[in-house]
């Protein structure tokens, strides 16, 4: 590493993973997006979303939300993934 210009040195990538208990996800998806941008989170695991069934939602802010829940609107979980981590 000695003698290499700073721009050419190997830098390990940082992977930011967080969890969030949202209580309910109705109308909060924009808040999740803002939180991910502000804190530079690439992968956010969501708990207690209370959405029914399995869904996938992509918003205009380059974040894709995967979700799975029960018909009783209980115990839903989700994962919000930034575009930088998705396979093209």
Number of beta-strand segments: 5
User: What overall form do the CA principal axes indicate?
Assistant: elongated
Distance between the termini: 32 Å
- Describe the sheet with the most strands: 5 strands, mixed
Stretches with pLDDT under 50, minimum 5 residues: none
- State the assembly state of the protein chains: single chain
Describe this structure in words.
With 88 residues, this protein is of the alpha+beta class. The chain has one domain. The protein contains one helix and five strands. It has one helix at 29-39; strands at residues 17-21, 43-47, 54-58, 63-68, 77-82. It has a five-stranded mixed sheet with strand order 1-2-5-4-3, covered by helices on one side. A hairpin with an 8-residue loop joins β4 (63-68) and β5 (77-82). The longest helix is centred in the middle third of the chain and has 11 residues, at 29-39. The model has no long low-confidence stretch (mean pLDDT 80).
Structural descriptors:
single chain; 88 residues
SSE inventory with pairings:
Blueprint (H helix, E strand, L loop, with lengths): L16 E5 L7 H11 L3 E5 L6 E5 L4 E6 L8 E6 L6
Parallel strand pairs: 1-2
Antiparallel strand pairs: 2-5, 3-4, 4-5
Compact summary:
With 88 residues, the protein is α+β, with helices and mostly antiparallel strands.
